From TrEMBL:
Protein's recorded name: NAD-dependent malic enzyme
Domain (Malic enzyme NAD-binding) ranges: 233-455
Similarity comment: Belongs to the malic enzymes family.
Natural source organism: Cohnella pontilimi
SUPFAM superfamilies (alphabetical): Aminoacid dehydrogenase-like, N-terminal domain, NAD(P)-binding Rossmann-fold domains
Length: 468
């Protein structure tokens, strides 16, 4: 699959030996595109430049080898833009007002703060108006299922959680804290989250492997009075359903008539399957490593037992290649390269493929393209990015504003329909089934739909002004 990246090469060029034009030509001949150059230092005989080069794949070694071999060129350093934006982390805490003098200090801190503490002690619901709880979400992971990278641990998970926190703020105006726990013990995770919950208006569980994630979420939902939302399950399912609703309009098929094959029945696969069944899909086959999940088999995973009973009505058995015959929709939430072009060719007319494994999808979109009517991935470098970032900022924006106790099925369905509705009938096409993350209408519509559904289902503890 074609991937690309930008690197910044700092080099010293001896002017008597080589010109910048010759260096630029060598970069071009090695497949690089010069995006920018900056002169860092210039002397009579030499210049130090930073050259930003776009390279078509991650193998920058031939380009660097060529530059290092050139007489008059000294490569001082090579940096990757992705690493540069992570230096020092991606978020910070900001005060909402400056503390300019002793009087300010006495209000925001002791002694003034004490009376606010006591007011909250007497009525804990005041924490919503007098602390950050009103607008704050904990993004909690144990690092066991990070993107498609697997169990990379809590330190490795932090950049993803920081990224989620950034997106919460930018798109939803929600203050989110990345929290990576140094434990994989289900009970310890539940207790830790419960113990830290006073500070937060919501808990966004992230990248916790299945099946532990199901128990952790279920227990926390029962034991906490704030929304607990496992993003990889429900955020993904909401956005997937939004995309599917629009893709079906293009191919003129109905939810109740289609055959769907889902591969990767972990956190995201279970939730997406359940959401499709709840929305009206009747013929859904869930497939994991051992093949199709089917009634009559023994499964230790309770979610698989549930799916065995509630899906696969024709009791199809076998591998992905076998059960994909005649499918209208393929949904991948597993890992790279699981779907072959030969499998796509066996699907029904106008196949819809959502290959959502990150960072590498189940099939190379370019290889699948000739045989597919609608193609979507989780990536930002292809059209139709189905990623839970379209959901979590807006769904929590709405849930926090109406102080929802929970995020229920109606709120999720409303969010999916809201996301789908952002793509107007006149705009809808194979390359545009799902709005861009940068479309400001997404959060506005999701927030409103979620608040309305929360009020209608009786889980809102506050009615925002525009709903009174
Ligand atoms: N685009 C998006 O918004 C999202 C994408 N994802 C992606 O979906 C994938 C799964 O994520 P989670 O459900 O959180 O992980 P998970 O670890 O809970 O589940 C993964 C499941 O896929 C199965 N699997 C893996 N390789 C397989 C193969 N070759 N054949 C059959 N089954 C296979 C595993 O057995 C497991 O049941 C990851 O790549 C993740 O990045 C997850 C959430 C959101
Ligand atoms: C997008 C996301 O949450 C994931 O791939 O895990
Ligand atoms: Mg995730």
């Amino acid at each position: 699959m074609a991937t690309s990246s930008n690197i910044i090469i700092r080099m010293e060029i001896q002017k008597s030996k080589i010109t910048f034009g010759e260096v630029a030509m060598a970069i071009g001949e090695s497949g690089g595109d010069i995006m920018a150059t900056d002169i860092i230092h210039s002397a009579r005989d030499s210049a130090i430049r930073d050259i930003t080069v776009h390279i078509p794949d991650h193998s920058n070694s031939s380009l660097l080898e060529r530059l290092r071999g050139m007489d008059g060129v000294k490569v001082i350093n090579v940096s990757d833009r992705t690493f540069l934006v992570h230096l020092g982390g991606k978020i910070e805490v900001q005060a909402r007002m400056p503390v300019k003098n002793r009087e300010d200090l006495s209000h925001v801190y002791t002694p003034g703060v004490a009376k606010v503490c006591k007011a909250i002690q007497q009525d804990e619901s005041k924490a919503f108006s007098l602390t950050i709880k009103r607008n704050t979400v904990a993004v909690v992971s144990d690092g066991t299922a990070v993107l498609g990278l697997g169990d990379i641990g809590p330190f490795g998970a932090m950049p993803v959680m920081e990224g989620k926190a950034m997106l919460f703020k930018q798109f939803g105006g929600v203050d989110a804290f990345p929290i990576c726990l140094q434990t994989k013990d289900t009970e310890e995770i539940i207790q830790t989250i419960k113990n830290m919950s006073p500070a937060f208006g919501g808990i966004n569980l992230e990248d916790i492997s299945s099946p532990r994630c199901f128990e952790i979420e279920e227990r926390l939902k029962q034991e906490l009075e704030i929304p607990v939302f496992h993003d990889d399950q429900h955020g993904t399912a909401v956005v997937m359903l939004a995309g599917l609703l629009n893709a079906l309009k293009i191919v003129d098929k109905k939810l109740e008539d289609i055959k769907v094959v889902v591969i990767g029945i972990g956190a995201a696969g279970v939730a997406c399957s359940k959401m499709m069944l709840a929305a009206g899909v009747r013929n859904l086959i869930a497939v994991d490593r051992q093949g199709a999940i089917v009634a009559g088999e023994e499964y230790s995973n309770s979610m698989w037992r549930w799916l065995a009973e509630h899906s696969n009505p024709n009791r199809a058995t076998g591998s992905l290649s076998e059960v994909i015959e005649g499918a209208d929709v393929f949904l991948g939430l597993s890992g790279p390269g699981v779907l072959k072009v030969e499998d796509v060719k066996k699907m029904a007319r106008d196949p819809i493929i959502f290959a959502m494994a990150n960072p590498e999808p189940e099939i190379d979109p370019e290889a699948a393209e000739p045989y597919v009517r609608v193609m979507a991935t989780g990536r930002s470098d292809y059209p139709n990015q189905i990623n839970n970032v379209l959901c979590f900022p807006g769904i929590f924006r709405g849930a926090l504003e109406c102080r929802a106790r929970t995020i229920n099925e109606r709120m999720k369905l409303a969010a999916a329909e809201a996301i789908a509705s952002v793509v107007g009938a006149e705009e809808l096409n194979e390359q545009y089934i799902i709005p861009s993350v940068f479309n400001e209408e997404v959060v506005v519509k999701v927030r409103a739909a979620v608040i309305k559904a929360a009020i209608e289902t009786g889980v809102a503890r506050r009615v925002p002004r525009d709903f009174r």
